[in-house]
Amino acid sequence: MIETMFSMQPNQLFEATCGSLAELLRKPDSIKAELSAEEFRSLCDLLGKIASSRKDTLTLKMKESIIHCLGFLSSHALQTNLYGQILTQLYATGEIASEPEMHFTIGESIADVAFSESSPMRRNIFTESEETFL
Fold first, then answer.
1. Angle 118-3-46 (CA atoms, 0-180°, nearest 5)?
2. Cα angle at 34 between 32 and 35, to 5 degrees?
3. DSSP assignment string, 56-114
4. Tell me: the pLDDT tens digits for 46-56?
């Protein structure tokens, strides 16, 4: 799915791909373990470019999904410099974002980076209660 994102043009399929990737990254045992540090950096750069793009073809929902992807990239075993890479992309997106909704989403994602796998946003609301999540 990640390779597909590198070559896709913005359309409805791309919006679904962004949402699916965010849901995949929400789980702690997802595809992040398979990425090398260089692949991780290139993925962060790609997601950051998409999130901070000013193109009209990218909907607010696409950008919000991508911002959630950036937040969900963090994990307890992640190297410190890779945390910095995620935060750099989120801060850059926040400087460019003009919609207030995006600023709220960026704030949620920064909290996701800080809490990592313990973030309340990572809870499956259908199978886990708030009491049993942590």
1. 65
2. 70
3. TTS-HHHHHHHHHHHHHT--TT--HHHHHHHHHHHHHHHHH--SHHHHHHHHHHHHHHH
4. 899 989 888 88
Domain for residue 110, yes or no? yes
* Structural domain harbouring 42: 34-120+127-133
What digits encode the pLDDT tens for the residues 13-39? 888 888 888 888 888 766 666 778 888
User: Measured in whole angstroms, how far is the alpha carbon of residue 79 from the centre of its chain?
Assistant: 17
Cα–Cα distances (Å) from 6 to 1, 39, 53, in that order, read 9, 12, 15
What pTM value is reported for the model? 0.86
Using CA atoms, how far apart are residues 52 and 46, in angstroms rounded to an integer? Answer: 10
In a domain, 100, yes or no: yes
User: What's the distance, CA 99 to chain centroid?
Assistant: 18
17 located within any domain: no
If one counts the domains in the chain, the total is 1
